[in-house]
Design a protein that fits this description.
Organism: Bifidobacterium leontopitheci
Order of helices and strands: HHHHHHHHHHHHHHH
Strand content: under 5%
Shape: flat
Membrane topology: Multi-pass membrane protein
Protein name: ABC transporter permease
Largest sheet: none
CATH topology of one domain: MetI-like fold
Keywords: Cell membrane, Membrane, Transmembrane, Transmembrane helix, Transport
Helix content: over 70%
CATH superfamily of one domain: MetI-like
InterPro entries: MetI-like, MetI-like_sf
Structural class: mainly alpha
């Protein structure tokens, strides 16, 4: 055998030996990692803390979360079950059991056709109050909160005190003064009696103030101004994308508050053509207690189910903007 062949054979054997050594080293490393992870789990169990990269299950937290989930979902399940019943089944069957017939689609049809289709009018009214009132409140909160956070002007502390004072005053305490004021202006029993009070959201303004202070770096705004960008362009192209989680949070707060508003329309509106869903459904609920009134609890339940569907859709569609802001401030700069 030639010297070149011997040298090649030795080289091949050396490479195989190196491969076997590398595999042995990798298996040893994996065993060490497994031992370290097992030891970490034991230390976490003794200390009561869990490693984020090596989580452990907690039976107690699982049970508590399950109880909380049942508590939150119970009203929705009740609505969903009872919306499938006829009026006779609603009064004669168990509340969490289905009736003898499945009448969901018939109930939905009857809800939109009962009393001349007034439910559809109430739904349109509610959407009007939400789009104009809650949308305007969100817009004002964005602009006011951003201005208070990023601009310095005399009286800024006084404005802060007024906002905090407004948050501390319950809305129900202002209902009667608002009614007297709108009565003097001749605006009661009109959509403006619902829209104008909904435009003011002290909590939304405060939330956007605090969020703008943290989410929009002042250095970024100064760089844009040095480059010659106007304040409006800076706000539109730089600040608004950074404020998306705060804007969505404020919008959802104002939307839910306007959608579920009950006391204000109750004292402001007398014409049922301007009722929102809350007052209209309550009128249907009380119908059975009036002289000659017909009990329509199945329609009230079905209407309530239809009422919460838009809110559920809004939360599901906008939750990604919340998630995008969960890590804000988590990384130290």
């Amino acid at each position: 055998m030639s010297a070149a062949a011997v040298e090649g054979r030795l080289t091949a054997e050396g490479l195989k030996e190196q491969e076997r050594a590398a595999r042995r080293a990798e298996r040893a490393r994996q065993r060490r990692v497994a031992r370290d992870e097992k030891a970490e789990r034991r230390r976490a169990a003794r200390s009561g803390f869990a490693n984020v990269a090596n989580p452990r299950r907690s039976t107690l937290m699982t049970v508590l979360c399950a109880i909380f989930a049942v508590y939150c979902l119970f009203p929705f399940v009740y609505l969903l079950i009872n919306a499938t019943k006829t009026q006779a089944d609603f009064t004669s069957t168990f509340g969490l059991g289905f009736g003898r017939s499945f009448a969901l689609w018939d109930n939905i049809t009857t809800v939109f056709t009962y009393h001349g289709g007034v439910f559809g009018r109430w739904l349109v009214n509610t959407l009007l109050y939400v789009v104009v009132g809650a949308g305007g409140a969100t817009l004002l909160a964005i602009m006011g909160g951003y201005a208070l956070a990023k601009f310095r002007f005399p009286g800024r502390r006084a404005v802060f005190a007024v906002i905090i004072g407004s948050i501390s005053v319950p809305g129900i305490a202002l209902a009667v003064p608002q009614f007297l004021l709108f009565a003097k202006l001749g605006l009661t029993d009109t959509p403006w009696a619902m829209i104008i009070p909904s435009l003011i959201s002290p909590f939304g303004l405060y939330l956007m103030w605090i969020f703008s202070e943290q989410a929009v770096p002042t250095e970024l705004l100064e760089a844009a101004r040095v480059d010659g960008a106007s304040e409006w362009r800076t706000f539109r192209t730089i600040s608004l994308p950074l404020l998306a989680p705060g804007i969505v949070t404020t919008a959802l707060f104002t939307i839910v508050a306007t959608w579920n508003n009950y006391f204000l329309p109750m004292i402001m509106l007398k014409d049922e053509n301007w009722y929102p869903l809350t007052i209209g459904l309550n009128q249907w609920k009380d119908q059975a207690s009036t002289a000659g009134g017909q009990a329509i609890q199945n329609l009230v339940i079905t209407g309530s189910l239809i009422t919460i569907v838009p809110l559920v859709i809004a939360f599901l569609c906008l939750q990604k903007y919340w998630q995008s802001g969960l890590a804000a401030g988590a990384v130290k700069e």
